[in-house]
Write a structure and sequence with these properties.
215 residues; Rossmann fold; five-stranded parallel β-sheet; binds flavin mononucleotide
């Protein structure tokens, strides 16, 4: 039995959001294939994601503890606790589905804020200051990730390296952290006349059919 963490990054309700609509199609199909798996959902807009600040991360990516924690205000303690819980939730999962729109050739900042919360020293990475080394720790079990990105434009393959910064970044960072399998579903041309939302969702649904069995 696996645990899947489904993360959305959009203030729109599902029926208006292309990325969330495709994300839900994926999750529903996944449930049909794996009825016993646990699915946790995290909405980075409605679930409060703290901003990392210097009192909470005492040194690089190291969550405050002990004496330093006791010195925090109640509000800061709450934020530190929340950040700990977000990281624990991420670690618990075996599979990840992230659905987000492309914003200015990247993903919305809430996702970066979330990643800055969960990529913690001693849990997700190991920072070896003596040897100046940082290592990912997520290769402790087989983890898989799928990134669903909706974009207004159809991005030609030859421009992908220049324009798909969000997808490329997520691929790189999760590989570094130790997640070996990274898949993507590009829901493209949502705002283009020649494609449009409906067609883009239809194409993405076909892609889901092709890859869901391997996920
Ligand atoms: C702030 C903002 C920035 C955007 N930047 C891009 C972009 O760089 N490239 C692109 O193709 N579409 C861009 N779009 C269009 C969205 O990616 C597109 O409408 C997407 O399908 C929306 O997905 P959603 O319905 O899940 O929000 C942008 C939209 C917004 C609101």
């Amino acid at each position: 039995m696996a645990t899947l963490l489904y993360i959305t990054v959009n203030s729109k309700p599902e029926y208006l959001s292309t990325s969330k609509t495709v994300g839900r199609i994926f999750i529903n199909k996944y449930k049909e294939l794996h009825p016993d798996d646990i699915i946790e959902e995290l909405d980075l807009y409605t679930d409060d994601i703290p901003r990392v600040n210097y009192k909470i991360f005492t040194s690089r990516a190291t969550l405050v503890s002990g004496e330093d924690y006791e010195q925090l205000s109640d509000e800061e303690k709450n934020q530190a606790n929340q950040i700990k819980q977000l990281c624990d939730q991420f670690l618990r999962a075996d599979k990840y589905v992230i659905a987000a729109p492309m914003w200015n050739v990247f993903f919305p900042s809430m996702l970066k804020q979330y990643l800055d919360c969960i990529i913690q020293n001693g849990k997700v990475i190991e920072i070896d200051t003596k040897n100046n080394k940082v290592e990912g720790l997520l290769n402790d079990k087989k983890r898989k990730m799928i990134y669903i990105q909706s974009s207004g434009a159809n991005i030609p393959f030859f421009l992908s390296t220049k324009m798909n910064h969000g997808t490329n970044y997520l691929h790189d960072i999760f590989k570094f952290l130790g997640i070996s399998k990274f898949y993507k579903i590009l829901v493209e041309g949502v705002d283009e006349k020649s494609t449009g939302k409906e067609k883009a969702i239809k194409h993405a649904t076909e892609d889901i059919e092709d890859m869901i069995e391997f996920f």
